[in-house]
Amino acid sequence: MEESEFEDILDDWFIESLKTYKDLHVYQLEHPTQVLEWTSGKTVCVAGFTPSRNEILELRLPLKLLADENKGLCAERDFKVAHGGFSDAPVRRLRHVPGRRCVVTNDGRSSDLQVWDLGGEDSDVIRRTGSIEGRRSQSESGSRIAAPLSSQPQVLHGAQSGDVRLSELTSGRTLYTLESDSADPLSSLQFVSDSVFLASCCNGSVYVADTRSSAAPQLLPAPSSPAASDNWWTDASAGRSGCRMVRVSSSGQAVISDLRRPGEAVSQAQLGDQSRLSDVSDVTVSWAPALDDCVAVSGFSGLVQIFDTSPWRSELQDARPLFEHRGHMVSSEAEDAVSVSVTSHVWHPERPRTLLSAGSDGSVHVWDWVDQSGR
Question: Where are the alpha helices (DSSP H) in the chain?
Fold first, then answer.
């Protein structure tokens, strides 16, 4: 793309963004990140995944974003590094332990975990304080990680359905083991209550288990799909109306289920042609925590797409996004901006339309989008 053409596209998008964003702030990391994890409503943890030494940073959001009133009087628009440290290994996954200044990471090459202290008011250093051994010494994609919703010093981890266990952070002692005869690779682990969790497999099947019970977990089969070789990514939302689960396939099919009626699809949709899938490890699907019926999907391209699932029905239908964040592709300084993909995104835990997203060019955006649908 010619430089003049790129500048025209950037100018057009900038003018458009004045109407479509309430706030938009950009930060540039030295290396790209695949992990975005809130450590509070004002701070987020990021880390590099290069083969060599990587930074682990806790970033403070721009004060201008956090100002509810008189934003024009707040001059501070930049991210700030609150705490930082270094990892000698890649950081492919990172999970904050609620209520504690602690995160747990995995390098994507083994099933072992690393435990980190995020520092406090008396120290700005993030330092490694321990490790937890995985059940298998080798793993093609590393361990998935989840933490209980309450501030218990525990972590759930595993690379395959037969590996999952709950470990104590301080001692590494095993507190619970998922009983499964299969060895299906996992796409995610997620607690939906203090003790109930989902172990979601790449083939679309999901185990529902309770750490308080010795009973065998409930196995939910994969959704029917025209492509048997599809990979699936899962997220769940536990609200007043029950626990809903959304599964998205590598061919762009989205299926929503209710855990009270797991055998049937509540609704489903085709999210468009996702032939530009860049890396199966980069796909992220997530329910909005403070906005009913909205799901964000990224990793198929340089876009973060937000869908309103309320019109979806049990019959498969095409779905158009409610909003698309194109900022990583448009604002990229890479020679081939089209090749820029979104490596991760996360909703703000309290602000309904605020998201954080990261791109393969090292960009990190925090944005508050405007719903122009009249929804």
Answer: 3-20, 63-66, 327-330
